[in-house]
Write a structure and sequence with these properties.
The chain has one domain. About 55% of the residues lie in helices and about 5% in strands. It has ten helices and four strands. A four-stranded mixed sheet has the order 1-2-4-3. Helix 3 runs parallel beside helix 6 and helix 6 packs across helix 8. The chain starts with 8 loop residues before the first helix and ends with a helix.
Amino acid sequence: MRRLLMISAVLLGLSSAAGADSIYEFPEDEDEANFIANEVIATFYHELGHAFIDVLALPVLGKEEDAADTLSVILMNDIWQEDAAAEILTSDATSYALLASQPGRFDDEQIFADEHSLDIQRYYNVVCLFYGANPEARAQLAQDLELPADRAERCPDEYALASESWYAMLDGTEPGPGNHGLEMAPGQEGVPLADLLADEVASLNESFGLPEVITVVVADCGEPNAFYDPEQRSITMCNEYAENLQDMWEAE
């Protein structure tokens, strides 16, 4: 399992790379930079959920977005050591709380018709699942993140069902002959966001193999976004997404 994520010269590097539209530079403040890096990782795991569902033709009972959120928490729990996993989850939950608290967020009725659950629902769902994976070690975290006691009682069963269901669907995705993996798009070396994701790609390829290659791209998108493209078999993490996370942090 992987150790605590620390902002280093890799994340603070300023070098450019061919093929990158622009270079997002992590802020110098370590807490702020860790929040952004952690949430990029959590969101990358979410988009990987969409990729799995697509390339493996997985059935989804309910919202696909909720299923992707669930996989993100499972990977946090299974890939990272306890302190690092808790930091990533806390950043993920914080991002939902910050979104939910934005003025006028609920004035547009379109938010209620969106394919995603409401930000505050996503907040409590990810906190519940993470707590449920290891309730003895995470009781204080659940209290700090204000998980209601009546929901907390159900979280171990919720996590067990979610983990068993995802891993049942991922049976046969072990690395090996005939299976492919994730690949970083070429020409992104030295780009801090891409270097961060390259570590995730290497780690995930140790656990999963896929019938199709999934390419991971860092690019300018014209909006704060991260998405899986089923036609290109690619996960794109937008520079504007990291910039928006930075703006959210600095607005608080």
